[in-house]
What does this fold into?
Amino acid sequence: MKTNGFFKQAVIIGSIAWMALFAFIPNILVGLASFCSTSAQNFIEPVWGFHNYGQLMDQAHLDILLSSLRLSGLVTLICLVVAYPFAAILARTRKDKRNTLLLLVIIPFWTNSLVRTYAMTAMLNSSGIVNNLLIFLGIISEPLAMMYTPGAVVLGLVYTLLPFMILPLYAALERLDRRYLEAARDLGASPWKAFWRVVVPLTMPGIVSGCMLVFLPGIGMFYVSDVLGGARAMLLGNFIRDQFLSTRNWPLGAAASVTLTALMGIMLLLYWHSTRRLGQDSAL
Amino acid sequence: MNDSLPVIQLHTVSKVYDGQWALRDVSLNVRRGEFLTILGPSGCGKTTILRLIAGFETPSAGTVSIDGHDVTALAPEHRNINTVFQSYALFPHMNVFENVAFGLRMKQRPKEEIRREVSEALRMVQLEGFENRMVTKLSGGQQQRVAIARALINRPLVLLLDEPLSALDYRLRKQMQLDLKHLQRKLGITFILVTHDQEEAFSMSDRVVVMNNGQIEQMGTPTSIYEEPQNLYVARFVGEINILEAKVVEQSEGRARVQVQGLDAFMRTKHVFAPGDKVHILLRPEDLRVETLKDLAEDPDLEDTFSRERSLTGTVEETIYKGATYDVAVRLDQGTLVMATEFFNEDDETVYFRAGDRVAVSWVEGWEVVLPYEN
It folds into this structure.
């Protein structure tokens, strides 16, 4: 038992140390950096102030932020609309077939998502599979310019992030007792009303966590925007990356990063609120 | 509205799940205003009947009618029938008020009317003032009553109850049985209850339907089910019963002379048998009278009241104390074990019989049930 106790202690201390070293301290540093200034000599000058956040409120920066939020919001919406029916069907399929379907959702994870994103260029570029097929079918005569458009970025993000929407929705729908649905119908609700009044509220924790798992990466996944969107920085993630790696304005990048973290915090609070109303344990 | 028309009619209904019969050729008429109980073990098809009436299932064959209209293909939301589900299925994201108001909101009734009706319904189930409580924070008995209020607020033609009391403890279950029965009498709404508990079925219902293997074994008042079971299955399912094998010697009007365990006596029966037919004699433990041979020999008065000529002799194997009564297990001389239930004497509160006592077991002619032989 004693060795067991030691092992337990070691694991706990190890985890705490790991989290402190690689998550907590870096975040504190980023937080501190966001209040500093930059100069020609140093990346970071300890001249304190809110000027970086002020700079983020510029029209140009706000535009990046808003368009990034808009894009990610659109991606989240598309994922939700596509994933909900799929998850509902999945939850109602017989167990043996269900595992096969779940496997099909998970298999793409086994390939690196950067590789998968590059693979999409092979499908979308002017001599890609989609254009060739459409020309072959006679639907179009000239190749469509799909690459390096916001549409391509949205498509890439939806493709990459869809499983993160499906899995929490599936978990919520699978847990949903079908008797609630029957009770609603029994009390005079049409299938449509039963869906909105009973199924959606009861699967809200799944909806919220799915949306969070799609929306937040959707803001930050700069490589998807790089590969499929071309030179135009469309995501906040691209902006942050550029501040650190090309513009070399670390404090501004840190401020944008902190803003993103704060956004995530607000969404987490919303999520907890939605689960507390249901009196359930939050399951993320 | 025609009062003699059955409120629910199942006509030769069958239901097949995955190649298995859940219901086989079941016909059932439910009378307006009655308390009907469907009784049977799990998997006998009783819940399937309820789901067919509610509209959650469609029959594989046959028709379901409500109030004379064929509703076989009608969706549940269009049937004037409500259900109290086994685990209540109260909406966990709504409070008591919202749960009870759900049906009226679906009908888009005015807000003021809904508020009035909900407090009325909650008063009916003694839950006034519970409007704003979350249903997940209520006790089992309270949830049960919310479920009843949520269903009855819609003034259904028929209320379906799917094992509504099975999750409650014994004392609460007894109380709810009475409450449900009184509620049904007061409202005059037809109740159809499904249960596997025969005591529950008998204490609440006007009529009981006994089911087994997707078929109806017997239908009738609780008394007729208990006193005159139509087959061994029903006899065994409702209460304790002694079953003796016997042979018919001769048959006359309403009676048969039967040889049972060495006894040759007349038994009342509605069945017609031929001499030599094998039959079962069914006797309820509480209908049997047991006296020791010693008492019978010593007390001539006892000899008068105890019909010695239609008694079976045996030896007491054990007695089982039950509180208000006790059971005597008697091994008959021919080898069969019978159970007799005895009441305590007013002036003698100890168990009278001892293991090893030589006794005679008798009963009043006509209290036995004679059934054709079944394997």
User: Anything to note?
Assistant: Chain A is about 75% helix and 0% strand. Chain A has one domain: 56-283. Residues 168 and 206 of chain A are 5 Å apart (CA to CA). The interface with chain B takes residues 177, 179-180, 182-190, 193, 197-198, 201-202, 204, 277-280 of chain A (CB under 8 Å).
